[in-house]
Amino acid sequence: MEAKFSTKITRRCGTKRKSQIQTFLEHNEGPGVQHLALASEDIFKTLREMRKRSSVGGFDFMPSPPPTYYKNLKKRAGDVLTDEQIKECEELGILVDRDDQGTLLQIFTKPVGDRPTIFLEIIQRVGCMVRDEGGESYQKAGCGGFGKGNFSELFKSIEEYEKTLEAKRITSPSA
Predict the structure, then answer these.
(1) Does residue 84 lie within any of the structural domains?
(2) How many domains does the chain have?
(3) At 11, is the secondary structure helix, strand, or coil?
(4) Is 154 helix (H, G, I), strand (E, B) or coil?
(5) Are 40 and 87 in contact (CB under 8 A)?
(6) Is 60 a domain residue?
(7) Which GO terms describe its molecular function (predicted)?
(8) What residues of the chain score a pLDDT lower than 50?
(9) Which domain holds residue 144?
């Protein structure tokens, strides 16, 4: 399997409230890798396996979006996902985005360490198959976009998570 690599640069924009990008920069003590996206050929199986291991030091995932997100999912996803897959997306907290070329399934972990810095994204891209000159099929890079439609859900969940960290910090006794 040929390795694929893509990079996106995120920058903070002037807002009145502190953004999750600013929080990352402060806790990371400067710029750095905020998250890594890991591709899966079967995101449902991958997540079930990861969740099985959560109790023994695996990964915790960001909270799922509200049920209304999944009620409207069939309309957004079209016929790419079966009703059963949509139900699995809701059960596992998977976000779904689609562009004119394909579909992106994605979920984010909570930050890996004890600070709100690096986290992982598990993705599966559906569609966008093309053939090279030799007749070999492969998936076009960036298939389904980069989850632009899910950014607001991601940022909401990160900000909610950061609020829990702030609450813990305020209620924890000082050393």
Answers:
(1) yes
(2) 1
(3) coil
(4) helix
(5) no
(6) yes
(7) 4-hydroxyphenylpyruvate dioxygenase activity; metal ion binding
(8) 1-3
(9) 33-166
According to DSSP, the β-strands at 102-108 and 95-98 are: antiparallel
What predicted TM-score, i.e. pTM, was given to this entire model? 0.73
- Going by C-alpha positions, the residue among 145, 152, 126 that lies closest to residue 69 is 152
Can you give the length of the chain in residues? 175
- Structure token digits, residue 26: 């402060």
Return the closest-CA partner of residue 88 out of 115, 117, 124, 119: 124
- At 105 the pLDDT is 92
pLDDT tens digits for range 15-46: 566 777 788 888 888 898 888 889 999 999 99
Strand partners, 165: none
Q: Is residue 79 part of a domain?
A: yes
Question: Of 61, 43, 39, which is closest to residue 138 (Cα–Cα)?
Answer: 39
DSSP 60: -
**Which residue type sits at 90?**
E
Helices (H), the chain: 20-28, 43-53, 67-71, 73-77, 83-92, 151-171
Query: Can you tell me which residue has the tokens 């006794």?
Result: 173
